Amino acid sequence: MTSGAAGTAGATGVRASPPPTGVTQRKVPRPGAAVVRRVILYVALIVLAAPFVVPTVWMIASSFKPLSEIFASPPTIFTDSPTWAAYAEAFTFQPFAQQYFNSVYIAVLVTLITMLVSSLAGYAFARIRFPGRNLLFLVVLIGLLVPGEVTIVPLFQMFKQVGLINTHWPLILVTALAAPCVLATFVMRQFFISLPGELEEAARLDGLGRVGIWWRIFLPLAKPALSAVAILTFLASWNLYLEPTVYLTSPELFTLPQALTRYTDAYGGEMWNTQLAAATMTVVPVLVVFLIAQKQFVEGLAHSGLKG
Amino acid sequence: MARRDALTGYLFISPQLIGVLVFVLIPVGLAIYYSLNDWNIFTGELQFVGGDHYAALLEDPQLPSVLGATAIFSGGVVALNIALGLALAVMLNRRFRGVTLFRTLFFSPVVVSVVAWTLVWGFLLQDNGGINGFLAQFGVVGPNWLQEGPTAMAAVIVTQVVRSVGINMVLFLSALQGVPGELYEAARIDGARNSTMFTRITLPLISPTLLLTAIITIVGALQAFAQIAVLTQGGPGLSTTVLVYYVFQQAFDFNNIGYGSTLALMLLTFVMLLTVLQWQLRRKWVFYED
Amino acid sequence: MNTATKLVGLAALATTIAVAAAGCSASAGSGGPVATTAPPNSVDLRMTVWTSNEDQLALFDSIAEEYKSDHPEIKSITFESLPFADYNTTLTTQIAGGNSPDLAWMGDLSKDLIASDALVPLTDTLSETKGWDYDDLLGSVTAEFTADDQLYAYPFSNSPFALYVNESLLAEAGQTLDTDNLTWDQVSAVGSAANAATGKGGFVIRDFNYASWNTLATVWTGWGASAWNEDGTECTFDSDEMVKAFQFLHDAIYVDKSMPGPGTTADFFAGDSAFTIAQVSRASLLDGSFEYAVYPLPAGPEGTYSVIGQAGVGVLESSAHVQEATDFLAFLTNPENAAKLAQFFPPPRESLLTGEKLAEVNTKLTAEQLQTVVVDQISDAVTLPNHTSPAEIAQKAKTALDAMWTPDADVESVLSSVCTAIDPLLAK
Predict the structure, then answer these.
(1) Looking at the domain that runs over B62-285, which CATH code has it been given?
(2) Does chain A have fewer CB atoms within 10 Å around its N or its C terminus?
(3) C160-307+382-427 shares the fold of C3-159+309-375
């Protein structure tokens, strides 16, 4: 799927600045034209950024509005009479704190299992010769291509047979071992395959076995790929919607995406402001973590060898 | 030694292999079995109906619209996602004040949960919502976005792309920076224009990334469920009822497990065919450095 | 039928025979017809409900506590609150997943459950329970949950639809209402004027949202229309009456602007519209931020009419404790407890249906209001359209009806396309 050079090229990653002879650099820039060009670039970027930024800002701002102001015309971004009422309501209406905890612990657990399973499999597929290796790799890759909708009904029946309906196990096991994990295995393999062959020889001289090589040599080297895997897997689990809708029926077991759509009154009417407050609470912490760690975040993804 | 090593290899891949076997391959087999049966969900009765559900595919009056919507949605998402991802990457692949801020802004929706993101867009797209309110400031009467087929489809495509284009942007950025600068230098000496350099040098060199992102984006688009479920519930009419949503309706709303499984298998066939097709075509347009 | 279901069915049959043979050996304390054979502390009962209202759940818990104190075999009775929006899907998933509750509230899922023999027939048990007074139930409210002369669910809630008026908004718009002769034409005219004067919505059919079309029965019944014929085999969306009713709605939206169009959110209870059609039970959403009044549904061309939305509670055949669950149901719905439930849910019992009785427990509406909008309505009300395969019919008709909500829609041809879409399902 990739050229041999991909991994090493990936390792150079995103730099804050392009190579000195990058595509944008003019031989003799005329100052006037350059300024105009720069202004156009800024305007274009700001206009383009609006749909990426405004919804989040609007969501946060509107969660403090009284219900009657959310659909006010003309629309407002910020309210004159902010209220925390919707935030309190979010917790009293359903066990939101519990649901928050569910989402976090499931995503963390899934991420850890995936990192372990995918780095083991990725290492073996990249560095160990065994009969049927390519065929088995292909079989594993099928896992990436089968849409969750194909397997969800049979999986439901299988989990029903073993009595795991209305538990978190289906959400943990399927995410940690099926599609998202296969993507992770693929990323890890692509990364490991790009590392030089001398690594193993040197390690063997030090008396390390395969497990030691994997754990002591390759995992530390694979930090960028592992962080990409962690990010993608965490988001995959965090965003699961279809699966919890199918497997879980008790509100105290719900995960956040599922919980967010349940803010309706006893008759199905939408509780708009409560929904917005709850959505804000699910988005802001992740956004803050992302803003703090955005460099590692973006670079991890770029370094991952996922670039083909 | 080699045999022991091979054994270690099998051991290392076994958790992943067993995972795929149990949670993907066996379920696919079961789905085939279900597609051959009728199932009364309340009583648990299973009745063998042979190829009836496959024949029903041909007679389902809704299916052509559903397939059409699926094609438009997936095609739209892939085209827009890759075009916008590449455009953003090119714009941000340079040095200027605030470049990191912009990269962060464009990437930020990736970490916002799909449901929260879609709920907010649902608000903004209401007839009396934020977007039309904004347009009204300029005397423009905006369309009733989610109530008319074409604009509803545009809305689900755009919300999906805006939310997820950040990943492609980063992958393209890293690919662009892997393109050796000397190539551009040489081309410029030959008098090549920017656009020529882009199509002759940049695109071929990042084509492996293009292939990979295309595959990931298509598979993602074919599985987009939450966006549809929250934003349009497949409407108006069937205009945004994509196959995934239809499968869910049949299997879990209408309790037609057998027919739902048949539809799901059709979806699987599409994904497989598309992937094989792209894989075959890659020789034609993917450039390899070695 | 699988083995488990068969066994449960046999058990239920055995129970019925035992009841018949014993000639109603009612235990005086609880009123249950048969004494349970279950050992003490061995039975856990679970009932799914869609309310998450704390007061309502507290009332259920207190009734359950009282029942438990007399029934040592009961270890626990829990009320599982499932979200209303996917109540049917969730309940079906539980049943299919072998995790079925013992008792369940149900709305439009009842026909499917009855048709699949998934519910326990109740008539014999209830009529043989001492003091239960089966004949107190109104015929008009039991019809929905009855098949072959057997009642399969107790219709605990029978909430008539009513016209809510935002009087503050009408005053602001300088409009008055001739409340003695309320008609749809008048509501539309006043709504149109209110919309023009204030920019707020005219009348809103609550929960319709241009998707849940069955709520429009609150309108079309006034034109003498119905979704399908009496035995549910033939679509009547294409009848002249229905065409006229939809023409009225279409004009209201696109000509008179008296009804907010699709994609416009206007919440009556937040003060966004002059009128709404909603169930009487929604009075709890009134927060006193504006003056309001409640009237029976306006008259249509065919005169006055009433519509109720119903919910029933039944016992699932797949329950492991059919006998105990049925006995608890009999206790939950006996006259004494039915009176308690009446504070939230308009009861099916004639003896409880007076304005004064209902007013004792209702803080939002007066005895007089309750008499006119509840009591006087229930006895000859029609219910919202209901059929087997409700979700599929709802979706197919909704998909076809979407074409109605554009300014230049051809009402007649859209309605006939609705029939084309749902006739195959009705014929099943």
Answers:
(1) 1.10.3720.10
(2) N
(3) yes
